[in-house]
C-alpha cells in the first residue's frame, strides 16, 4: 500500500486561492509514490473535487454529522460530503475535540455514519504535552482508540500529538515509532482488520523532516496542516515518500 499524504486545510481557503492551490498540486504531481488527499473547507469541497478529478488526487471533508439529513443547523452530513466529491473524512481532530467538545463516543458515531455513507474515515488520536510529561501518552491514546472506533471499523488512524500540531515541535523518531507500534498493537487486539490499517503521523510535518518521519516503521503516511497550504511544501512532502 502506498503511503497517504493528506492535506488538512482547516478553516483556510477562499475560492480563488483554493483553486490555485489545488491546481498547483495537481500540476506539480509527477509519478507520486504516494496517494494524495486534499481536505479543503466544506465550502470549497465540490470545486476542489472537480479541479482534481481524473488526477488520482482524492478529496475529503474535515468533519461530518452522525445523520444523513435533518434539523441540524450548520452541520454537514457524510452523504453531503460524498455528494460533493469526497472519498475521505477527517474525524476527531484535536481541534474538534477541544473546540466543539467532541468526545470519543461522538467520534465513534460519526465514524459509523461516515462508513455507512461510503467514506473512508481518518480518525485522529493524540496526547497533550502534559499527558506525555506524565508518561500517560499510551493510556490516553489507547482509550481514544478503544472509544473512537466502532467494532466494525475500517479506515485510517492519524496519530497527532496535540503539542506537535502547528507548533514546529516534533516527537523524536523513536517516540513516533514507539507510538505507531503501540497503536498497531491496539488495533490488532480490538479490530478484526487491524493489521492492515494505515496509521498516519501528523504534527508539524514539513519538507525538512518528512523523509525521516515517513521512513519510520508503521508510518503509513502523513496528515499535514500548515505545510499543506503551500503547494511547493506539500509537493516536497509527497516527493519525500
Ligand atoms: C493538523 O492539524 O492536522 C496538523 C498536522 O497540523 P500541522 O501540520 O500544521 O502541525
Automatic annotation (TrEMBL):
Main location as per UniProt: cytoplasm
What positions does the entry give for substrate binding? 8-10, 166, 204, 225-226
A GO biological-process term: glycerol catabolic process
Which keywords annotate this record? Cytoplasm, Gluconeogenesis, Glycolysis, Isomerase
> Pathway it belongs to?
Carbohydrate metabolism; erythritol degradation; Carbohydrate degradation; glycolysis; D-glyceraldehyde 3-phosphate from glycerone phosphate: step 1/1; Carbohydrate biosynthesis; gluconeogenesis
Record keyword Cytoplasm present: yes
A Pfam family that the UniProt record links to this protein: TIM
Record keyword DNA repair present: no
What is the active site of this protein? 93, 160
Cellular component GO terms, alphabetical: cytosol
List the GO molecular function terms. Answer: triose-phosphate isomerase activity
Q: What is its EC number?
A: 5.3.1.1
> What is the top EC class of this enzyme, as a single word?
isomerase
Give the location in the cell: Cytoplasm
Q: InterPro entries from the xrefs? A: Aldolase_TIM, TIM_sf, TrioseP_Isoase_bac/euk, Triosephosphate_isomerase, Triosephosphate_isomerase_AS
Q: CDD domains this protein is in?
A: TIM (cd00311)
> What's its catalytic activity?
L-erythrulose 1-phosphate = D-erythrulose 4-phosphate; D-glyceraldehyde 3-phosphate = dihydroxyacetone phosphate
Q: Which family does it belong to?
A: Belongs to the triosephosphate isomerase family.
Subunit description: Homodimer.
The UniProt function text for this chain reads:
Involved in the gluconeogenesis. Catalyzes stereospecifically the conversion of dihydroxyacetone phosphate (DHAP) to D-glyceraldehyde-3-phosphate (G3P).
Q: What is this protein's name? A: Triosephosphate isomerase
